[in-house]
Design goal:
mainly alpha
Amino acid sequence: MLDQLLPLIAGLGLFMLGMKLLEDAVGALAGLPLRRFLRTHASTPSRGLVIGAAATAVLQSSTLVSLLVLAFVGAGIMQLSGAVGVIMGANLGTTLTTWLVASLGFKLDLAAPAMAFIGVGGVGFALLRRASRVRDVAGLLLGIGLLLYGLDLMKSGVEDWAAGFDVVPFAGWSLVMMALLGMAVTGAIQSSTAAMMIALGAVHGGLVDLPSAAAFAAGTGVGTTFTALLGALGGSADKKRVAATHLGFNLFKAVLALLLLYPLLALLARVPGLEDPLLRLAAFHTTTNLLGIALVLPFAGRLALWLGRHFRSDGGHINHYLQAAGDEVPEAGLEAVRREVARALGMTIAMNRETLRVPVDPDSAWSDPGEVRGRNARRDFDERYRRLKRLEGEIVEYVARLQLQEVTPSVGSGLSAQLDAMRMAVSSAKALKDIRSNLVELRLALRAPVDARLEEFEASAAALYRDIDRLGPEQPEPVLVEAVSALRSRVRETRDGALTRLYREASRESIDEETLSTLLNVNRAIYLSAQSLLRALGRHLLAPEIAGVVEDAVAD
């Protein structure tokens, strides 16, 4: 019995290895464009459905597509309603291989073409330079060859095994038991495609009847959700929402398939061209996916709202996007970091305004998301500064994890630029934090020359922050370059003008030495804070190479 079973096991192993090589090769050849397309076009459930089906048909891995969706939803660059559509489309996309194998795989001699693919692909994969596109093409050919050869071994192994296999012990298994078996097998091997190959092989070899195989197929979709569920355990609310969508849809689809199993198989038996039970199994698998999509898609928007109400963030982290994005997809990670740095800039600007008594503009592009708590109670300044520092630490740790992945040069330079922006934002807040006590002392002095200088500081700061309020990512890059450069030059001129007036006051002896020293320190801190903030905005808003040119052109 074992000798008859070994070809089946070896065939399954080669098939899964071929699928893995195929997935890696397609991901390397089309990964970045595919990720960009997925994140920019899956904006609605219907569009997400089409894109999810196409992406999974290309990658042949609904698990990989699900992980991409987890990352993009977590980073805030894909709406949950669009993600629901992608998840449903991913289930549909996996049926393509089932159709190909059912129509051709068990009818053709696959050994000869498989050996040709393995020969050409294997030689190229072994000899060519790593990280080259030609080697990725060789990996693609090798993956196809192993997949075909594994399928051929499975076909012959099932035929030999079936000849001496006693089906009596399994004759009494219910459809629910077969669905649970399909779920368990798929969860163990983490490939619904490979599980469907087992079902097709079992039907082809006469090991099980068509209804039992159809019930087995119904359970395979639920088995694919295990990876997403494990990834969501202890994760962010966004990850839990996507995982719940993945599990819920597949459970609903499995129950629907079991309820409609006999009537649907009877209906498909009357369809011309589906006389072969393998084709009917493929048709059953596809039809149940389509029925599930047709019933759930109209309610995708409401489902997203319901998930948003029932999965809340635990509040253990300062960041909103990093935990949700994960570190599996560097492009999504960069977008998450950008959003967190934008939050940090809003926190810095709000604290600086408070220190310098600059009124908050309700229409500002930069707001502090944590400035108000409870019943309009303002957080203590020191607590807000500690939150800013904690956020900086979380971003640094996240970027360190992200850079362990294989990132493109553009993603790497983007991450470095955002880290610079974060560091400069903290420097800006710290510069003013250090003079808060000095400002309190000067305001309590109640001396006209000192009050005049303080009013000048506050007036120039108010003008600066009004202009900062108008800076935003929606503006063209040339406009931002000119605005940031002009503001940095103006800040320097303001500092020099304040120094001139302070020294003039000192020469008139209207300000004593100790007060003069304090005012000079305040003037310097305000200048350093403003320059750090403007540099942070430049690093955050501009492309890294453009921000570097601005840095070189404008001296501190």
